[in-house]
Structure formats: structure tokens, C-alpha cells
Amino acid sequence: MKRNGLRIGGLVALAAMLTAPALAETGTSLPQDISETAGRLMAAAASDTVGLKFVEDLTTEIGPRLAGSPAEARARVWAVNELKQLGFQNVRVEDFSIPYWSRTHETAEVVGSNAQPLVITALGGSKATPEGGLEADIVRFDSLSDLQAAPVGSLTGKIAYIDELMYKTQDGTGYGLAVRKRSGCANAAAEKGAVACLIRSVGTQSHRIPHTGIMSRDGALGALPAAALSAPDADQLTRLLERGDVRVKLDIGVQSAEAAPSGNVIGEIEGSDLKDEIVLIGCHLDSWDLGTGAIDDGAGCGIVVGAAKLIDALPGKPRRTIRVVLFGSEEVGLLGGQAYARQHGDELDKHVLAAESDFGAGRIWQFQTRFGEGAKPYGDTIKAMLTKIGVAEGNNEAGGGPDVGPLRRGGVPVVTPSQDGRDYFDYHHTPDDTFDKIDPEEFRQNIAVYAAFSYIAAETGWDFRKAADAESAQGAD
């Protein structure tokens, strides 16, 4: 018999294994009581209901949450109420403004003797086509580099089309390569005289579902109307081009404004003797508008809320404050993370650790740190604890997550619990990003990891900025 992905008969053995003291090769060990509590937190995560319910309710009751939209505003109100009901302290919204963009309509069709519809979605920041749309011949390129190398004026009056594939990787590096065509197509096509640009969707699934995303993080409208074709439609367009010239009618409508309201939602598990020191775990509350934002990033919000609530259920308070931040407007330029760093710039020295869950709900397979040289043994000890639930020991080059990037650059130590992202881009930024794509067992393993490292960071009082001591530094010379 199974319950919550674990065999009931194995729970006792699991708890015993998890509560054994974590000892890194360096000899830095966790105090017995902290080690045992961290183990119990990881075991308890297997039965979590708070985190998963948070995602289900958010995606059901609010749905998609486009940055700056009324839906994102409703999500902030909803999140404040939920965090208060869950018993978080100091729940609040920290407001900021953003440039606003949304789609109103989007269609594309091949015209002429092979007339047929194409499935597209406008890219974030796309300009509108002229009223009634535009028609132009298609010119295909294998990559953004090929488009950029085209002679100036060679695309006058035409539509540039970049037909570059994206490949699946566990760590998401395939996205970093493929997304360049999304950000670069409009500008490069405009330089060559084109009237619009199309790209093969930045995604890894083969269904007739397009993938959206922002073109530029500077908040400005792009140079041209721009859209992504679903993968099968990209294949179809390429096959048609192999048979001769192809003409497409493109019709995109958008709304935009220089300023719209957004904000970061914050709730805390207040600490005790070190309550002014902050362990920050975050996610982003906004989403794109095609699906319901379940894996990107409702899942991340459920993971950090669920982990913090497990710690809150322990007897007594953690020593340090655990701050949960639901960042706003991540999708349109990491604007929530930037706003948080500005608004808390004078207290970054009090942020002892930060991490963001923003890569879906796949199983965490590796744990990376970015600590001071003298704090590496602390990282090794946390990693040793997490190996008990199958998490590999990563390096000391963690990024921390998109919205905590400004904190990392400001000197805040970060960790990256690396999720398995091999199927993440099958759903990311598409209509298929819905609650049913979350695997409850893998989701709860994420909560176990976040609960354990957050608790250890809060309870030990370790200094993760610690530089190498003089003796070690001399030995390295």
C-alpha cells in the first residue's frame, strides 16, 4: 500500500535514516537536535497538503496572472489572504510599477494556392500589425545568427522566419541557447527591412501549442510584430517553403501602457534570538496568460509556502526569520526581484541566505551553493543531509534563481536546488501549463529539500559569507 508516494511500512526506516547526523567530509557536523529535526521535516514533507493545495487553489481560483494585469492584482490579494490564514506573520504587499503589455488577438494564415491557418502566439512586447493585418512573403533562416548575417535591405517588405530547434536538457541549458531567437528576431529582422518576424516556438513538445515569452527585458515594445509558431506549424511552413514561395497574412493586436501596478507579496515565519537575520525563499506569482501558470511558477510558490509552513509547525520559533517572497512581474523582466533589491538595499547584510524555486516541480537532483570560502564546510554538511533523499552534491557556483539574482550580486549567499527539467519546456509558457502537470510525489520532494536547508540555515546561525581563515589562506599560498 502507498500513501503520498511512500510505502507506509517504509516510513519508520526513512525517518531513522533522515534523522541520522549529517557529517561532511570536512568534519563540520550538525548538532544532533538540528539534524534530527531536519530529518523529521523531510519525512513530514512526504505527507504535505499545504503546498500542493496552495498551487491548486491559486491556479483554479485565479488562473493566469499576466504581469501588471487585473488578474495579477487579484492574485496578490488572494495570496495575502492565504498567507494570513496559514498563520504567516508580517504579511504585506510591497508595491512597484511596471510597463504593461498584453495581447488582444493573434492569427496567421498561409494565403494563395496552399491557403491554410497557422497556430501562433504573439511574443511579449510585440508591436501590433496595421489594422486588418499585413501580408508578406516568408524568408526562412536556420538561426538568429543567419538572420543577423543577412545583407541590410535584403528583407524589405518580407517576414523573417527563424526555424531553429530547441533540445531537451536536464538543467535547462537548451533554453538558454534557443531563447536568443525570441529576444533577437524582431530587432534583427527590422535592421534588414522586414515587416514582421516569426520564430519556431522556444519549447520541446511536438503538439500544436505555441510558446510565448518576453522579447526584451527593458520594458519597451519590440521593433516589429513578432510571433511564435507551434512546432508542427513551423514544420508545415518549412515544408511549404521547400515547395516554393510562401505568403503569410499576420494579424496581431496588443495593448500597452507605460505604467501598471505590480508588487511582491511577503510573509514571514518570525525568528527568535536572530530574528533580524533573514533566510529568504521565493517564487514568482505572475505567469503568462496562455495556461494557468501551474509549473511556472505556481509550483514554486507552493513549494516555498509548504516548506515554510512545515517549519512553522515545529515547537518554538526558528532562530532566524524565514521570509517567503512571492515576486511579482518576473516574466516581463525580473522586475519584482529588482524592486525587492531596491526596497531592501539597506538590509542586504541581514539576508543570510536566499533561493528561488522557478523551474517547475520536477525532482531536485542536485544542490548547489554560493558561499564564502570559509563557509564551504557548512554547504558540504547541508549537501550531506540532502543526499539521504537522493540529491547529489553540486558545486559552489549557484545562481540562486532569477529574482534573487540582484541579491546574489549584492553579496547575499545563495543556493540552487536544481530540479530535473527534461520535460519542463514541454509545458512552460504554453496553454498546457496547468495543474495536472504537477507530480505530487516529486513536488513534495522539493518541499522536503526546501524545508531542510531553510531550517538548517535558520537554526544553526552559520555565517554563509564567511571568508577563508588566515591559516587556511596561508596554506593555499
Automatic annotation (TrEMBL):
For this record, an example GO cellular component is: lysosome
Q: Which GO terms describe its biological process?
A: proteolysis
Where found? Endoplasmic reticulum; Golgi apparatus; Lysosome; Secreted
Record domain Peptidase M28: where: 264-452
For whether the record's keyword set contains Glycoprotein, the answer is: yes
Q: Which residues form a coiled coil?
A: none
UniProt keyword Iron-sulfur, yes or no: no
Q: Which Pfam families match?
A: Peptidase_M28
Keyword set, alphabetical order: Carboxypeptidase, Endoplasmic reticulum, Glycoprotein, Golgi apparatus, Hydrolase, Lysosome, Metal-binding, Metalloprotease, Protease, Secreted, Signal, Zinc, Zymogen
Which GO molecular function entries does the Swiss-Prot or TrEMBL record give? carboxypeptidase activity; metal ion binding; metallodipeptidase activity
Under the heading InterPro entries, the entry gives: CPQ, Peptidase_M28
Main location class: endoplasmic reticulum
Q: Which domain of life is it from?
A: Bacteria
Kindly state the subunit structure of this protein.
Homodimer. The monomeric form is inactive while the homodimer is active.
Its recorded name reads Carboxypeptidase Q
Instruction: Tell me the organism's taxonomic lineage.
Output: Bacteria, Pseudomonadati, Pseudomonadota, Alphaproteobacteria, Hyphomonadales
